[in-house]
Design brief:
By secondary structure, this protein is an alpha/beta fold. It has helices at about 5-25, 55-65, 85-95, 105-120, 165-175, 195-205, 215-225, 245-260, 265-285, and strands spanning about 75-80, 95-100, 125-130, 150-160, 180-190, 230-235, 290-295. It has a single domain, classed as Vaccinia Virus protein VP39 (Rossmann fold, 3-Layer(aba) Sandwich), CATH 3.40.50. Strand 4, helix 5 (about 165-175) and strand 5 form a beta-alpha-beta unit.
Amino acid sequence: MTQDSAGVAAYYDSLSRFLDFARLLGRGGGAAEGSIHRFLAAEQGEAHADSAGGERLDLLVFDAAVAAGVPPAPRVLDAGCGLGGTIFRWQTWRGGSYHGLTLSPEQHRRATAEAARRGVTDACRFHLRSYLDPIPPRAPNLTQPGALAAPFDAAIAIESLAHSPDPAATIANLAAALSSGGVLLIVDDMPHEGCDPALLAAFKACWRCPVLADAAGYRRAIAAAGLTLVYEADWTRRLRPRPLPWLWVLIAVFGLAAHVAPTRLLRDALGAMRGGFFLEALYRTGGMRYGLIVARKPATG
């Protein structure tokens, strides 16, 4: 594990423990749903209008995967699975087997415990490892069906590649783990033309984002990995950032609170919340886009 990876792991361990406490107070940033994703507003006439915010995102990505040809009962790799919410939903909707990768021991513990509670440990497995680590191919005589081994029908990376020190290398690694005709689905925050560099730097520092690829960067990485771009969607309009004057106040208040916080857990939690406010400010000022990118590995034979 690199120094950058170790820092991200410690950061997410602290956030996961903070969310355990926050849930006792009726909060938790989506932890109760098993995923901590952006809230996406429903659109008029949409089939998923009645779903919750985090679930709606998973439904939208799931629909894109099915439209791209992901089969029933697929083998799916979730790169940056967090607490496992996306995996549990997809397994309910589509069946199949799922492997989640996380750097955080705390997230790994919680996701594994939830799989046991649901009785799906054979179908939903979680691994404490980086999505930059190569995934070995499945051996012909493999006796452990739950072992982590390529190939996969789909790989998903929802709000996780922002934490990669090398998004292009990560995409190449995920592409190598796909089966012939397999699908890669990426959802993330992507800097946009005219992005305020000071706001972007502050956001990246708070959220431990060493590199933040824009849409063009993802397209180049996808092409370099030998994948074909299938579909893109801009979901920025679905976000509901706070008004800018209120965001400046929150950024200042949470910055002061993080400065005087007595423990790393509180500093990480307050810093993450402050990073969220910086991100909202980027959206409010037009410097960020939230998008889906779908790519496919060419079919062989």
